[in-house]
Each structure stands twice: as C-alpha cells, then as structure tokens.
Amino acid sequence: MIESQRITLLSSMPVNKAGSFVVYWMQAAQRVRQNEALAFAIEQANALGKPLVVFFGLERSFAGAQERHYRFMLEGLAEVQQQLRLLGIPLWVHGDGIIPGLAKLVPFISVLVTDRAYTRVERQWRKQVASFVSCPFYEVETNVIVPLEAVSDKEEYSAATLRRKIESMIAYFAQIVAIQKPLVDGLSEEPLFACVNLGDTAMVLKALALGKMGGVCPHLVGGEIQAHQKLSQFIESKLSGYAIHRNDPSQQFSSGLSPYLHFGQISAIDIYHAVREIEVEDVPVFLEELIVRRELAYNFVWFNPLYDAYEGLPSWAQKSLAFHEQDRRPILYSFAELEQAQTHDPYWNAAQKELTELGTMHNYLRMYWGKKILEWSPSPKEAFMRALALNNTYQMDGRDPNGYAGVAWCFGKHDRPWAERPIFGNIRYMNDKGLERKFNMSGYLARIEKEIGLNSQLS
C-alpha cells in the first residue's frame, strides 16, 4: 500500500465501469523502479480486474528545453517501455502532447493516476485534465522523500527551518515500494492513437524539430540503468571525501545524479537507502543536499507562485538591490556576450562553457556564476532573468525546482543579509580572489578544457 499522504484526489468522479483499462499518466517520474504512482495504478487496476496502460504525452516545446534534453528523456523512456513490457504493461507515447492524447483516452479510462509535479505548466496540465476526465483522477507524490504538505503548509525561510521539521519524518516516508506484475496483462490492448516509436530516437527528434543550442552532451545518457550506475560509481569512488571536496571545482566529487532526478529516472528514496548505512562521515553531508536542500527547493516552487520571477525574492533582498540599482557597474556585458562566455573572467567563462557544452556546472561555481551576472548586468531584475534563461536553456536539469531555487539563492533567497556593499547591497558577495584563495582554479580550468575536449570526441 502507498502511504496515504502521498495521494491526492484531483477529480472525484465515480469509477467509469464501462472503461477498458486503468491509465497511469507518466510525466514527472519516468521510471519503473521505486515509482509510487505506478505502484498505486497497479493496485487500482488489480482491484477492478482491468489491465493497466501507461500513457506519456510528448510535448513539442517545453519552456526552452533543447534537443539535448529531449534526447536524454527519450533514451530513458525507451528503457521504461522495455521494462514495462516485462510486466505486461504497454507504454503509449502520444507525439502531439499530453492534453490531446489524454482526451482520446478519456472515454475508455476507468481510473486515471498521475505523478505529482510542481512547476506552473505541469500544475496547469493536471488542472486541465481534472476538468474533463470522467473517472477518479489521483495524483501521487513520487519525486520527494517526504510529501510537501506533511512537512509544512507554507514557504520555508531557509534550510534551517525546513530541517527542523523534516528530519524526524525521513525514515518513515522513505518506504521501499515493490512494483508487482498486474493481474491482467495489458499488452493485447490496441493503442487508440499512433504511438511514437521510441526505438528510433533520431527520427523522433527530427519530427519534433527542436532547438539545438549548446553541445549535444553525448557523455550523458538517459535512463534508469545509467542512473543507478552513476549512483554506484559515486558510492564507490566519491562518497568518501564528498564532505571535504564537493565544493572544490578542480575536482569532480558531485554525484552526477541531478539530470536523472530531474527527469524522475531515479528515486531519491533509492539513493537514500543506497547510502544511509555506509559508515563514512560524508553520508550526513550528502543526505543534507539530497533531502533538506533539494526538498527546500520543492517547497519554494510549490508555495511561492513567483518562484521564477524577480518579485519572488525576499523583500529584504529586493529592497537592498533596489537601493543600489543605480550604482555604477565597472563592467557591463550583453546577454549574448554572457551566453558566448566572452567576459574578462576566465573562471566565469569556464563555468559558462561547462554549462553550454556539457550541460552541467559545478555547484560552487554556479553560485559564483550567478553573482557575477548580477554584477555585470544593467539591473538586478535583468540579471535574474538572464541567469534563469541561461540555466533553463543549457542545464540538463534546467526548469527544475533545484534550478529555480539555485538561481534565486544567488539573489538572496534562502540566505540572510550580509554586509552592505555597492551593487550587491546586502546580498552575499563572491569574487575571483576568494576562489583563488580556496581552490586550485588553474586545475578547474584544465579540467573543464579536458572534459569539453572528450565530449567533442564523442559527438
């Protein structure tokens, strides 16, 4: 049984007894393993003695996402389709979007289940679907360990305030879910529309005619198998030392799991169970990032309707930045110059190239990167929108609660007022001298140059 606090009823229509099957609309949790929404959908199908169909709507445009993002997602979906077939569950992928695809299925659905999502467009999809379904419609929380409302009923001020509430709940909500084979095989069900052929990624991408900004990122391959391999590699070679080295950009001690978490190709619960019993001092530090910091970002996006706007920043930050908005900027760069890494700062340029060419950015450098955009832009608001646009366009986990919270942090979100200075006001300040004092920055430049070169060879 799925914990009841993970389940929300979005439409209380009665069960459609004339329906042919139960449908799980997969969107935020693109995986089979440890998928609470899939498990709940199987429970519903078994209770009704009906087959289960998994539906995925392929949107042709999604908030600036590029071909690199769709390729990664399609690689994962092809793997999901294969794994579902072993369970007797078909995956039907509609190539013209979520709403048109579900509209064709509605008359035949006995019960509809989906996974929970948090951004504005994803919430709007669920609201639209709830308005026209003719059966019960459930949403199941799958991508955080502790359901948001179980932790708090408001936007939390900082990691400290969330940590006090969430720590005692983690063990209870981190329940392992076994995915059972449905009682009724659904593979004989005929699709009610022409399904996308996930076996031909190149053809699907060509048909979608997507933007191709940035490198193609062949070093990042999507899917559950790759996600769990990344996790195993991290545990074997990087978990020990993570606490000391995670902030050093010259070394690569990150888990590399962010893109997989973003597309729901791995569960945070699986990660939690994989590391929590390992007896190294780095585990609590890693779990702080995985649970407290990550779920603080989800809290921000869920409870703050302005999570992607400058006006969503704390009032103290907006007031301080407004007071210094007319301060003289020693250097101003255009958006194009920033996008093309054409600044005087070699560290910032390397971070931007890491973003555009590799689809990632070292977490510590992302903080520095955002601070410098604030310093080099005509106004704080324009700086915020520039940082958000660059992050959403190029980061493989862009358009994610972590990304929105990360950009907002650079402008004071989840932080406190610091000593006042020009341009920044009371916003935390960072500069290149600080990087050089703390880290081997020439080593960082060499690492990024090497990784970009290796990525080019794979292209």
UniProtKB/TrEMBL annotation:
GO terms for molecular function: deoxyribodipyrimidine photo-lyase activity; DNA binding. Residues 20-148 form the Photolyase/cryptochrome alpha/beta domain. Its cofactor is (6R)-5,10-methylene-5,6,7,8-tetrahydrofolate; FAD. It catalyses: cyclobutadipyrimidine (in DNA) = 2 pyrimidine residues (in DNA). GO terms for biological process: photoreactive repair. Keywords: DNA damage, DNA repair, DNA-binding, FAD, Flavoprotein, Lyase. Its EC number is 4.1.99.3. Pfam families: DNA_photolyase. It comes from the Bacteria. Belongs to the DNA photolyase class-2 family. This is Deoxyribodipyrimidine photo-lyase. It comes from Sphaerochaeta globosa (strain ATCC BAA-1886 / DSM 22777 / Buddy) (Spirochaeta sp. (strain Buddy)).
